[in-house]
Design goal:
The chain is of the alpha+beta class and 271 residues long. It folds into two domains: 153 residues, Up-down Bundle (Four Helix Bundle (Hemerythrin (Met), subunit A)), CATH 1.20.120.450; 85 residues, Nonspecific Lipid-transfer Protein, Chain A (2-Layer Sandwich). The protein has eleven helices and six strands. The termini are far apart.
């Protein structure tokens, strides 16, 4: 688990570095993701980091939180309200709690068997998959904060975990929409953050996806519409997939409309 835990910890530190200088007013400023604020995002991440950790170390506590969240929703409650009840701190105090817990979690998870099965809101998954999902959530929700701040996130080879998750959920993106799963999946020829080639799949009739790994990760996490990237997509199967890709669990979600998610202009240019 050393590789995954180090990548998760790095993802936490990169987002924390962007959050640390924020002014008090920015914590409650709406982002382009469903008008969630940075406080909403960090509470969400911390609440479900705790749940993932409990699923390993305190399964009963995990089931209690899961049951509470479902009952809250059943009664018509908003999930952001539930997460506020579970994590009742704000601003930089929230940042400190989220960061400290996540880094401690990463260290403790290093000794776990990556194949150990744990419960989750959907089907059980391996510990490795659970931690990759936590990194993906951090990266995907963090994109809204980097966009709000008008910053480019520093990317490293840790991005490969999210790319692999996107590749591995090719079938899921179809099944969650009730579609037949094409076989084989399209060929992927991607370029990593340091210019390294990352390739997946075999050349065939399903098509080709060519471009940056960052663009691909943004599409499968639905932080960008395909048309807002520089990905080159060839073939009907490849194009339909990336117009509807979804590497996260839950009901089918549409991607953001073209132009909706983007890096904000510096305030001096806006004025």
């Amino acid at each position: 688990m050393h590789h995954q835990t180090c990548d998760f910890a790095e993802e936490i530190q990169v987002l924390a570095a962007a959050l640390q200088p924020m002014r008090d007013a920015q914590w409650t400023e709406p982002t382009q993701f469903k008008q969630w604020t940075p406080e909403h995002i960090l509470r969400h991440l911390h609440c479900w980091n705790e749940a993932a950790d409990w699923a390993v170390h305190s399964p009963k506590t995990f089931q209690e939180r899961l049951a509470s969240s479902r009952e809250h929703t059943r009664q018509g409650g908003n999930m952001r309200e539930f997460e506020r009840q579970m994590v009742d701190v704000s601003g930089h105090a929230l940042l400190e709690r989220w960061q400290a817990f996540a880094l401690d979690m990463a260290e403790r998870w290093q000794v776990l068997d990556a194949r150990q099965r744990v419960d989750w809101a959907g089907p059980p998954m391996s510990v490795r998959s659970s931690l990759t999902a936590r990194q993906m959530e951090t990266w995907a929700h963090g994109q809204a904060i980097f966009d709000m701040l008008g910053q480019d996130r520093p990317e490293t080879a840790r991005l490969r975990n999210i790319v692999v998750l996107g590749v591995n959920t090719f079938a899921w993106s179809h099944k969650v929409r009730g579609w037949d799963v094409p076989d084989p999946m399209p060929r992927m020829e991607l370029t990593g953050p340091s210019g390294e080639p990352w390739s997946f799949g075999e050349t065939g009739e399903s098509g080709l996806v060519h471009g940056s790994a960052k663009d691909f990760a943004q599409v499968v996490t639905q932080t960008r519409h395909l048309l807002d990237t520089e990905l080159r997509v060839e073939g009907e199967v490849a194009r339909r997939w990336l117009l509807n890709a979804q590497c996260f669990a839950g009901a089918a979600e549409p991607p953001p409309s073209p132009g909706v998610r983007h890096k904000a202009l510096p305030s001096a240019l806006v004025d």
